[in-house]
Amino acid sequence: MSKILISTEGAISFVYADDLRGILRQGVADIKRASTVEPDDSGGWSADLSPVCGPVLGSFETRSEAILEEIKWLEENRLI
Q1: How far apart are CA 68 and CA 74, in angstroms?
Q2: Alpha helices, DSSP H only, in the chain?
Q3: What is the dihedral sign for C-alpha 8, 11, 16, 18?
Q4: Closest CA to 38 of 22, 58, 54
Q5: DSSP-derived secondary structure letter, 27
Q6: CA-to-CA distance for 62 and 25, rounded, in angstroms?
Q7: What is the mean pLDDT of the chain?
Q8: Confidence of residue 57 (pLDDT cuts 50, 70, 90)
Q9: What is the mean pLDDT of residues 65-76?
Q10: Cα(61)–Cα(78) distance, rounded to whole angstroms?
């Protein structure tokens, strides 16, 4: 389930998912990358949240685990 944050000024923030694409047509969209999930030197996966002044999370065994932790961090600290 996707979470959506609406600020008191009316700005909408969410982690992009194709099923939420219609929200982008509700006004001027400003899409920004919050992180990158890439293979790391240990053979696992890391989520680099430096674009939003966050940490590098990982190493995780799978890419999907890194993405889940990335979203969890964003929900707890940044976006939603």
Answers
A1: 10
A2: 63-77
A3: positive
A4: 58
A5: S
A6: 33
A7: 90
A8: very high
A9: 93
A10: 24
